[in-house]
């Protein structure tokens, strides 16, 4: 039985990369019935897109999203830096599917500001080639990490995250995350928002930020590369959903996929966007 959820935010899925956990995301999406689904950037990784690598599991996620949009779920696709090609389609609407750069919602009388967050990243804004190179290095690190974790599972050991270890131990990475959260929160406070919701930094979070001007709740949906996380809002409460904590409750169920779009045709559509 599917869970009814008022609002779900996912980001940083990076479909089309080796590190993407598309099968796990599909299981999660098949377990919920959201009134509103917000895709907060970097869903399809156009930067690293290759025709030779876009598995059926990745295409199924796109089909599922389209399926939700045809079944009374409002779907917002907010563009990020890895899928910036879609920014030329800003304000495009097709039924319940809308493409935008940011959205402002009123959730139970609370002003909510939702955007990806790459606007705060100087490397993306001013040295895009460096950011793209970093993205390829990150993807390679995830591939190596997946191989290591496969061996660890075989010998009964716990999984290990190279990138989390690096983030937690490199002072610059820790400072970057802290600065990102503070910058987003202070801008939200200045503009009288109660909630600010971001992605981009692959760091799930819910915390209150206060300064002399006021306070807001900062939220981040994390990613579907390492954390496998999403934000859920239901019964006037925000929660972070972690796949690893709930995977034993999720069933494989792909019966409600869209059937009138073949995987081949869908890949052609994605390829046209990427070129």
TrEMBL record:
<keyword id="KW-0997">Cell inner membrane</keyword>
<dbReference type="InterPro" id="IPR029052">
    <property type="entry name" value="Metallo-depent_PP-like"/>
</dbReference>
<feature type="domain" description="Calcineurin-like phosphoesterase">
    <location>
        <begin position="7"/>
        <end position="204"/>
    </location>
</feature>
<dbReference type="GO" id="GO:0008758">
    <property type="term" value="F:UDP-2,3-diacylglucosamine hydrolase activity"/>
</dbReference>
<dbReference type="GO" id="GO:0046872">
    <property type="term" value="F:metal ion binding"/>
</dbReference>
<keyword id="KW-1003">Cell membrane</keyword>
<keyword id="KW-0479">Metal-binding</keyword>
<dbReference type="Pfam" id="PF00149">
    <property type="entry name" value="Metallophos"/>
</dbReference>
<dbReference type="GO" id="GO:0016020">
    <property type="term" value="C:membrane"/>
</dbReference>
<keyword id="KW-0464">Manganese</keyword>
<protein>
    <submittedName>
        <fullName>UDP-2,3-diacylglucosamine pyrophosphatase LpxH</fullName>
    </submittedName>
</protein>
<dbReference type="InterPro" id="IPR043461">
    <property type="entry name" value="LpxH-like"/>
</dbReference>
<dbReference type="GO" id="GO:0009245">
    <property type="term" value="P:lipid A biosynthetic process"/>
</dbReference>
<keyword id="KW-0472">Membrane</keyword>
<dbReference type="InterPro" id="IPR004843">
    <property type="entry name" value="Calcineurin-like_PHP"/>
</dbReference>
